Amino acid sequence: MEPLKDFDIQHKWRLETRPEELTDIVLDTACYDKWCARILLAYEIIAPGDAQGRGLSLRFHTKGWLPYSFLFTATIVDLVPHAFMKLKVEGDFEGFGYTEITGHDTTHCDLNLRWHVDVKHPLLRALVPVFRLVMRKNHIWAVNWVGRMMQAEVHRRRQHLNDFAAPPPTFRSVLAILNPGHKSRARRMGWASGPGVKAVETSRTR
């Protein structure tokens, strides 16, 4: 039996895409900041993983609609190509994420996401019991945008377009005020350290 977590949130999207197209987007780490700019502030590649993606590990700086942000690492620890991925999550979130592709035909498929984590953010941890519903809605808002942006990225790639349509993050200008100690937390988590680490900062956060 799985231990209880602060959040166990499940999503399901019906997308006009093939499973292989979603895999291509996930494994194309160089483009994350372009198609997912609505919630992704910055990221670093820790390990590229194998050809199928197993072992791929990245640090993420993300946010939802509300004016606070999260730093965490996500690593693909298990997968079935074009069908299932299990992500180990550490940092401001700790737990696991799961994606599964079901119900696919020649034009569409269902993308199922489960986010099963505890909140470890130093300022928000104590607020989870009081603001759980608000935090849940913030997460749902962010993940729903991921679904929209992923669908838009499928269409962009099919049409061989160079322009990305993802809008900028919300409340970007007040993040520093509401996230004191962010840089020191990032350093403790290993951001921009060690050989072979590729750091990517989105243009909207510079």
**Major sheet attributes:** 8 strands, antiparallel
- For the biggest β-sheet, the strand order reads 1-7-6-5-4-3-2-8
Radius of gyration: 17 Å
Structural class: alpha+beta
Low-confidence stretches: 193-198, 201-206
* Relative strand content: 25-35%
Could you tell me the mean pLDDT? 87
Number of helices: 5
Order of helices and strands: EHHEEEEEEHHHE
Helix content: 25-40%
- Characterize the overall form: globular
How many runs of DSSP E, i.e. beta strands? 8
Q: State the end-to-end CA separation.
A: 44 Å
Features:
206 residues; alpha+beta; eight-stranded antiparallel sheet
Question: How would you sum up this structure, described in words?
Answer:
It is built from five helices and eight strands, in the order E-H-H-E-E-E-E-E-E-H-H-H-E. The protein has helices spanning 19-27, 32-35, 128-158, 175-178, 182-188; strands spanning 7-15, 40-47, 57-63, 69-80, 84-91, 93-102, 109-119, 198-201. An eight-stranded antiparallel beta sheet has the order 1-7-6-5-4-3-2-8, covered by helices on one side. Strand 3 (57-63) and strand 4 form a beta hairpin.
